[in-house]
Amino acid sequence: MLDIDQARARAHDIVARATAGGADAADAVFAADASLDVSVRLGRLEDVGRSESAELGLRVFVGQRSASVSTSDLSSDALDTLVERAVAMAREAPEDPWAGLAPAERLLHGAPPLLGLDDGGDVSPEALRDAALAAEAAARDVPGVTNSEGGGASASRSVWALATSTGFAGAYAATGYGVSASVVAGEGGSMQRDYAHHAARRRDQLDDPAGIGREAGERAVARVGPGRLTSGAMPVVFDPRVGSSLIGHLLGAIGGSAITRRTSFLLDALGTPVLPAGLSLRDDPHRPHGLRSRPFDGEGLAVSPVAIVEDGVLETWLLDSAAARQLGLEPTGHAARGIGGGPGVSASNLYLDGGHVPVDTLLAEVGEGVYVTELIGQGVNGVTGDYSRGAAGFRISGGVIGEPVAGFTIAGNLRDMLLAITAGNDLQFRFGTNVPTLRVDGLTVASG
Fold it and tell me: Domain extents for the chain?
C-alpha cells in the first residue's frame, strides 16, 4: 500500500492536472485500503478474505458550476482523461451559488495532531483465525447456547489524502481491528440470537476474544423464551448499545442539508434546549486512537473538540462550506467526504456527557417498564420527529430487570424524547458514538 507521502502526492497531482486542464478550482480525495477478514463456524475455518483497493475522486469547479468523477485506474493517461471529462461535465452543469471550496484561511496549516491511529501492525491470517476461534468457542461454551452463526476477526489499514487548489494537501493512515461472535440459544420456535463485537484502532487495545464470545453467548441465552408486554405508556430504558441511535437522530436533524432544505424537526432549535439541563453532547476528533478521530475534515479544515450541545442547549449546526454559505454562517469542520460526489457532514467521536444517576437508581425509579436491547426497523420521520420502532429487551418490574420480552413497538416524538432523557453514570468509550444507559419516561409501548 502507498504510504502517507505517496497518497498526498497522488491527490496533489490530480488537482494540478485539473487546474492546468481548465478548472478554476479543484479538490481531490485519494483513498487506499487493505484488509484481511477471517470467519469461522462451529470450530472450523469458514472463509479467509483479503481485499485491496485504491481510488481517486476529483471535484472540479468552472465558475459556480461543478462536477465530480472518480476512478480506480491511476495510470497517467487515465488521469488526463478523467480531468478532461470532469471539466467538460462541469461546464454543462447548472450553476450553484453556494458551490466552492472551503475558505482558504480556515484550512489546516502546519503539522497535523498526532492521534495514534496507525499502529503499523501486520497481522497474520493465523492470528486472526485463532482470535475468531477463541471468540466462537467461548460463546458456544455458555450453557444454553445451541448453535452458532460464527466468529470473525479482521484487520485493516487505510490511507486517506485530500488536496485542494487553494494550497491544502494532507494525509493520514489508520489501522483497524475487530473481533465478533454471533450465536443462537434455545430450541425450535424459542430460538434467539445475539452477538458481541469490539473494534479498535490499535491491536493492543482490542478486548480479549474469549470475553467477547462469552458476552455474545450470555446475551443470547438471556433472550430465550420472551414474553409479551402490556400495552400502554411507560418508561423505556435504552441499553448503551441502542441508546446511541437517539443521538444519531439528533445529528441527522442538525446537519447542514436538513437545515438548508428545511426538512428537520429541529429547524428552529439553535440556541434552545434540546436535551435536559446538565447534559452535553461533545464531539472530539482528537481523541487518541478514536474510531472516528481525524486531523482535518473532508474539506481540509482544522478540527477541534466542540460541544454540539452544552448544558442541554444546541450550540451549533453541523455545516460544510456550501451549507454554511447558504445560511450565512461559518463551516464547522464537520465536512465528510467519500470518493464520489461532494462533501456531506459527519461528527467524529461523539459522547453524551453529564450523566450522573447510578444505573441501579435509574432502574429503581422506573418501577414498571422495559429495558430495550434491540431496535428494529426505520420508523423515524426526520421532518416531524415522529418515532416508532420495533424493539426487544427485558421487562422491568419493581425496578429490577426481569424476563425477556419481544414483539413490541415503542413510539413517541424525538423532540420530546430527547428532552425527557435521564442519563446514567456508566458512560464508556467503546464506539464511534458513546452514551450511558438512558431512560425516557412516558413512551407509548404497543405489544404485537
Answer: 4-221, 226-448
